[in-house]
Task: inverse folding
């Protein structure tokens, strides 16, 4: 399976898809799936610009709203996570994940899906120590501290992810802390000299994400954020001879001319590759990961909407709870999902905020109202499927 990986999106979807089309023509292959490692900027209208944390000169309506409105269509399935420059008004609606536009699936603040047998897992946001142990205390319109803290990764999400089986692909916006020590550090410093102090202090990146890398041992780990291309390999210890598990790490730049912002990776998937030879129109299918659904049910009672977190049970109790929930998921969900696990059987893209004309672009002019909090039907459907309370956007208008 050919998977295109993009570093930071920064709203430049048209250029990203054009670049992929150019690579396809040049190399005579077809890309099956696109992964975008944060700073996607799912900005539906000018109001959403109020909910993005960045200097005013960068608060700009770019390409996404045309895909949201249906004026343009993604040429391939696209899976994304959030970074530190997102419209949090929209991302919060889909905390558990969902389609931000047709064929563009957001994993949520943390999440995991199956794509034709491949487990693809990810975490949104960046690490800030002072908010890591907090609950989700932020509320629209996300002003002052809330505008930034809402995208700071929480221990709650990291703990959930740590209970997954080994992913084929894991991706985040932030880098795992000290990943620079596993590649060409001097080349990294040459390309990004301002990173040298953090590299020398061994503080570059996210400590929780390195913990996840070492715990989950994904085959591939992709990231963005630092606006440079960097490769590394992490060899995990093994008791066997010649059986070391390796995680291949790749970080990529933002989408700008003459920058290394996108790679196409061949991910082994024999069943999909064989099926595609018999059908050139075959497209990857995004399905729920039963293990992630079980983890979500097990952890949901401990999700806090206050500044302080709720205490979790001990590890043994948590693991037992996840196993019980996995049995519930396998017994109850296939009948709700038409006999399978396809995301589309539960979550279907629905516009919440009203779309704007495709000709619109640029920065806010004059008075623009703050964004509203909508009850997203995909979040409602997801919570109904798992039979958990929807505490993300209760009692709010859906349109």
Result:
């Amino acid at each position: 399976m050919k998977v295109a990986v993009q570093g930071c999106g920064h709203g430049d979807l048209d250029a990203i898809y054009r670049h992929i089309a150019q690579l396809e023509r040049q190399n005579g292959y077809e890309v099956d799936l696109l992964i975008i490692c944060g700073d996607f900027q799912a900005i539906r209208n000018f109001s959403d610009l109020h909910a993005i944390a960045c200097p005013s000169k960068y608060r700009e309506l770019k390409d996404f709203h045309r895909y949201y409105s249906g004026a343009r269509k993604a040429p391939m399935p696209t899976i994304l996570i959030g970074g530190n420059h997102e419209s949090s008004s929209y991302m919060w609606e889909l905390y558990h994940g969902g389609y931000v536009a047709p064929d563009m699936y957001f994993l949520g603040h943390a999440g995991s899906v199956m794509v034709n047998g491949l487990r693809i897992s990810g975490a949104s946001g960046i690490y800030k120590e002072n908010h890591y142990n907090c609950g989700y205390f932020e509320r629209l319109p996300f002003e002052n501290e809330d505008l930034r803290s809402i995208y700071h990764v929480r221990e709650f999400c990291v703990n959930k992810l740590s209970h997954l089986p080994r992913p084929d692909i894991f991706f985040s916006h932030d880098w795992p802390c000290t990943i620079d020590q596993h590649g060409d550090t001097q080349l990294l410093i040459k390309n990004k000299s301002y990173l040298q102090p953090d590299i020398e202090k061994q503080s570059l990146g996210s400590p929780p994400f390195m913990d996840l890398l070492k715990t989950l041992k994904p085959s591939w780990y992709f990231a963005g954020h630092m606006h440079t291309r960097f490769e590394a390999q992490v060899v995990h210890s093994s008791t066997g001879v010649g059986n070391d598990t390796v995680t291949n790490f790749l970080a990529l730049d933002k989408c700008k001319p003459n920058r290394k912002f996108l790679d196409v990776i061949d991910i082994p998937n024999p069943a999909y590759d064989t099926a595609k030879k018999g059908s050139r129109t075959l497209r990857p299918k995004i399905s729920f990961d039963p293990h992630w659904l079980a983890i979500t049910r097990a952890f949901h009672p401990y999700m806090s909407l206050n500044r302080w977190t709720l205490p979790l049970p001990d590890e043994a109790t948590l693991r037992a709870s996840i196993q019980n929930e996995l049995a519930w998921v396998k017994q109850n969900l296939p009948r709700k999902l038409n006999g399978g696990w396809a995301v589309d059987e539960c979550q279907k893209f629905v516009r919440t905020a009203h779309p704007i004309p495709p000709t619109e672009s640029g920065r806010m002019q004059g008075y623009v109202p703050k964004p509203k909090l909508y009850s997203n039907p995909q979040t409602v459907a997801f919570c109904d499927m798992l039979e958990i309370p929807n505490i993300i956007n209760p009692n709010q208008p859906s349109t």
Notes: The chain is about 30% helix and 15% strand.
